[in-house]
Structure formats: structure tokens, C-alpha cells
Amino acid sequence: SISTIKDKVVVIMGASSGIGEATTRKLAEEGVKLVIAARRENRLKTLVESLPNAKILYAVADVTNKDEVQAVVNLAVEKYGRVDVLFNNAGVMPTAPLSEKRFDEWRQMLDINIMGVLNGIAAVLPIMKKQQSGQIVTTDSVAGHVVFQQGAVYCGTKFAVRAIMEGLRQEERENNIRSTLISPGTVDTELHTTIKDPENRERVENLQRTIGLQSSDVADAVAYAISTPETVAVSEIIIRPTKQV
Ligand code: NDP
């Protein structure tokens, strides 16, 4: 069993910006073997090119497509022979009042934030069971604990992910598979760009820019969570900007 983070094989979904990009950089620095994925190929390519000494591959994948997610995981197995950690980090946050009836955005949040996580779990579970070892890390949120303004559906997806990850923990602990939630408060990322309403988007962007954590702060939490011995399961790390309500 591997107890140091160096040489671990880590797959990151949603690695093209923000928390996923910062985690890629942090883990690459630590000598982790990486396969990173997202939809924007140009961003993945630029990121990989900026890490010339890293053991890293990228693949284009949409987390709502289970075959594409499986292909990313399979690439890690083909290239490195195993998967130690899956980081389910992809997410969108098009917040709006329920009364606006934005069916497309509701569907998008359910598909990416919930089904995307389930597709990741489904892709790695058989492999990790065979290994009798593995860790699934998922980015949840403070929004998985409290419901904020215009966030009914987004927070709903993050509450759901917390339940799913706790169920995973209960079901797979005997197989030595660990379930970890990383739950940040506001982080200064591109997440606000998924909000359609200009006023709401600006409000969230302003909050991210003024008090938000840096993505690297969250990456440090991920690195810690995957650095513990196999007998130690970090179930959740909640990390807020000090000034956040
Ligand atoms: P970003 O918008 O910077 O990053 C989101 C990442 O998810 C991108 O890499 C994006 O890549 C990827 N992504 C989105 N949709 C898909 C998809 N369908 N398939 C594959 N990848 C996808 O924001 P953050 O870094 O902030 O977001 C990362 C996670 O952190 C999300 O789960 C978010 O909910 C969570 N979070 C963020 C907080 C914040 O304040 N920023 C607070 C708490 C939690 P691409 O578009 O290239 O596919």
C-alpha cells in the first residue's frame, strides 16, 4: 500500500480552471502521477505544457457522459497501472430564484454536480475494489450545509453529494475505499461565469474577489486529505474564508 503522496495515481475531473487547476499544480509539484480532464481542451493543454517536469496526461471529457468519464479513468490504468485517487471536482453554479423556472439550468446542475459525481464513482469503484484500496475525493461546499440566496438548486445538488459520499463511505469501507468531501466557502475562481443574470453574477464575482479563498488554499486541503495513512479516512474538510458569514 502506498502511504506517501508521491507516485500516487490521481485522476482529476474538472481540472481546467480554479480549484481543479490549482490542485493539479500542487499535486504535480509533490510528484503525483496525474490524469486530468475537463471540456476545454485548450486550457488543459496549456496547463500540462506549463508543467514540463510532471507525470501528467490530459483527456477531454464531459462528466455528464459516463463513457467519457470511464475513458479518462481507463487511461490512468493503462498508463500507470492503477488509480489511487479520483477527485470529482467538476461543478457549475448558475444560481437564480426558483420563480424564474430555469429548467435548463436546473437540469445542468443535476447532471454535472450530481450525475457527474456518480459517473466518477461508477468508473473507479470496480478498479478500487480489485485493488482493495482507493480514495474518492469530491468537492462539495459550505452550500452542502446551508442554503444561500438564489441557491436552492445548487445547494440541493451539494446536499445530495454529501449524502451520496456518506453512503459510499458506509458501503465501501470494508474494501478499504475512502470517501472524502472537500467543502470550501467562497473561492476566487471562474465559478461565477456560470451565472446568467448579470447583477447576480457581479454580486457573486465581487464576493469571490474580495473575501474568497485562493484555489491553492483548497488544493492544500486536498493534498492533506490524500496524504493520510490508508487507515485514516478524512471524511470532510470544511474551509472558509475567515471573513465569510
Ligand atoms: P471553475 O469554474 O473555475 O471550475 C469548474 C471546473 O469544472 C472547470 O474545470 C470546468 O471545466 C469543470 N466542468 C464544469 N462542467 C463540466 C463538465 N460538464 N464536464 C467536465 N468538467 C466540467 O470553478 P471552481 O474551481 O470554483 O469549481 C470547482 C468546484 O468547486 C465545483 O464543484 C464548485 O461547485 C465547487 N465550489 C466552488 C466554490 C467557489 O466559491 N468557487 C465554493 C464551494 C465549492 P470545463 O468548463 O473546461 O469543462
From TrEMBL:
Pfam families from the xrefs?
A: adh_short (PF00106)
Q: Which UniProt keywords apply?
A: Oxidoreductase
Q: Name one GO molecular function term.
A: oxidoreductase activity, acting on the CH-OH group of donors, NAD or NADP as acceptor
> Is-annotated flag, keyword Transferase?
no
Note the InterPro entries from the entry.
NAD(P)-bd_dom_sf, Sc_DH/Rdtase_CS, SDR_fam
Output the superkingdom of the source species.
Bacteria
- Family per similarity comment: Belongs to the short-chain dehydrogenases/reductases (SDR) family.
Protein name in UniProt: NADP-dependent 3-hydroxy acid dehydrogenase YdfG
**Record organism:** Mesobacillus foraminis
